[in-house]
Amino acid sequence: MIISVEGADGTGKSSVAGYIKDRLQEMGREVLLVREPGSTGLGERIRLLLLRDESINICPKAELFLYLSARAQLVEELILPALKAGKIVVMDRYVDSTLVYQGAVMGLGVDKVLRVLVEFFGSVFPTFTVVLDSDVEDILARLEAREKDKVESRGVHFLEKVIQAYRDLVEVFPERMLLVDSRRPLEEVCEEVWQEVKKRL
Ligand code: TYD
Questions:
Q1: Contacts of 171 (CB under 8 A, 6+ apart)
Q2: Given Cys at both, which of 17, 95, 127, 200 links 5, Cβ 3.0 to 4.6 Å?
Q3: What pLDDT score does 164 carry?
């Protein structure tokens, strides 16, 4: 089982993913928690290039393949072995981030990106995906408190598109994806997500 947590930056994905992991472990389940891009040696290097290095120019197609390189390594090195060992994999971002950011917002095309994803990662698609929904004002207020990375510095219009693209995606995959309003106390959001995960175990 692969559970992914998605949403725009600053919606609390990492906290929610961590909460799911803790609750699953309390139930005695073995869990692998990973974040994308990252979690492997190659992935963390690529993460630095994509999110921190201001000195290089990366065009949208190059960006797509960097995210996919990081993912390929993650699947090979950590996800497949974890699934084989019977663990539940909890992911802080995964394939839907690529559909939203590169496919919809950067304009490479959701259908086109989906075809590539299905071709190379179709056997390890998420079983259940939570999308933490919010609005621009709420997200900007939360992001204000922390240092922004390259993606988070792309501005309000970019953020609006990300939020809308996630909403659209949930309509395309209503069985796999669930939209959860994150504009509430974190404990409440975590608990709602946990109840939804439990139903699907
Ligand atoms: P994230 O780890 O959520 O950043 P933060 O910890 O600062 O919230 O995600 C990093 C960024 O990577 C995020 O802005 C979205 C972007 N991203 C893509 O554009 N495509 C992808 O396929 C993935 C996995 C992430």
A1: none
A2: 17
A3: 98
Tell me which residue has tokens 């492997």.
40
Euclidean distance between CA atoms 92 and 54, whole angstroms: 24
Identify which of 110, 94, 91 has the alpha carbon closest to the alpha carbon of residue 161.
110
SS3 content of the chain, % helix, strand, coil (to 5): 60, 15, 25
Pull the structure tokens for residue 25. 């472990």
Q: Per-residue pLDDT tens for 174-183? A: 999 999 999 9
147, burial (CB in 10 Å: exposed 0-12, middle 13-18, buried 19+): exposed
- Cβ count near 76 (within 10 Å): 12
Q: What is the pTM of this model?
A: 0.95
- Ligand 1 binding pocket (C-beta < 6 A) is 9, 13, 35-37, 51, 67, 93, 97-98, 101-102, 149, 151
Distance separating alpha carbons of residues 24 and 89, to the nearest angstrom: 10
| Residue 152 clears pLDDT 80, i.e. is over it | no
User: Where do we find the tokens 């990252």?
Assistant: 38
Separation of 37 CA from ligand 1 center, angstroms?
7
Beta carbons of 134 and 9 less than 8 angstroms apart: no
